[in-house]
Design goal:
148 residues; mainly alpha; 2 domains; 7% strand; rod-shaped
Length: 148
């Protein structure tokens, strides 16, 4: 009888240890799953991240050209942003004309008056331009590319 009690106590201890090991394994698996969900998107889309970075650079160049135009106009006595038409004529604001939006390959600019929000458009439009404010942004769903 005594042997059976010891045997059952030892079996209970082993079963308890297995239960703890199972909980530890589940906690580690959950932690790894959360880490994978968090980090996986950044590993899966290096091309997308590169396009976003290129779009930011094109947008920065675009905005610098608009500011340069405003400064030139101020020097000439009438400080103003370029008109929608002036923006699209190569050499007036941008030496090479409107840049290609790397996110969608489009050079098309659409007017967007009073842009308090950033309208999203399809792939046929590259940029949105608020002529009154002289503000330009990428016409895409990538908010990272449109930081001010």
């Amino acid at each position: 009888m005594r042997g059976s009690l010891l045997g059952s106590a030892a079996g209970s201890h082993r079963s308890h240890a297995r239960g703890i090991a199972t909980w530890v394994s589940m906690a580690m698996a959950g932690t790894l799953a959360i880490a994978a969900i968090t980090l996986l998107p950044s590993w899966l889309s290096p091309a997308e991240r590169a396009r976003t970075k290129q779009t930011r650079q094109a947008l920065d160049d675009f905005r610098v050209a608009i500011e340069r135009f405003k400064q030139q106009q101020a020097f000439d006595g009438w400080p103003r942003p370029p008109t929608y038409v002036e923006l699209q004529i190569p050499g007036v604001v941008l030496d090479g004309g409107v840049p290609v939006n790397p996110l969608n390959g489009s050079r098309i600019v659409v007017p967007a008056a009073g842009a308090t929000s950033m309208p999203r458009t399809g792939g046929e439009v590259g940029w949105c331009y608020d002529e009154a404010e002289g503000r330009v942004w990428s016409a895409s769903d990538d908010l990272g590319a449109n930081r001010w």
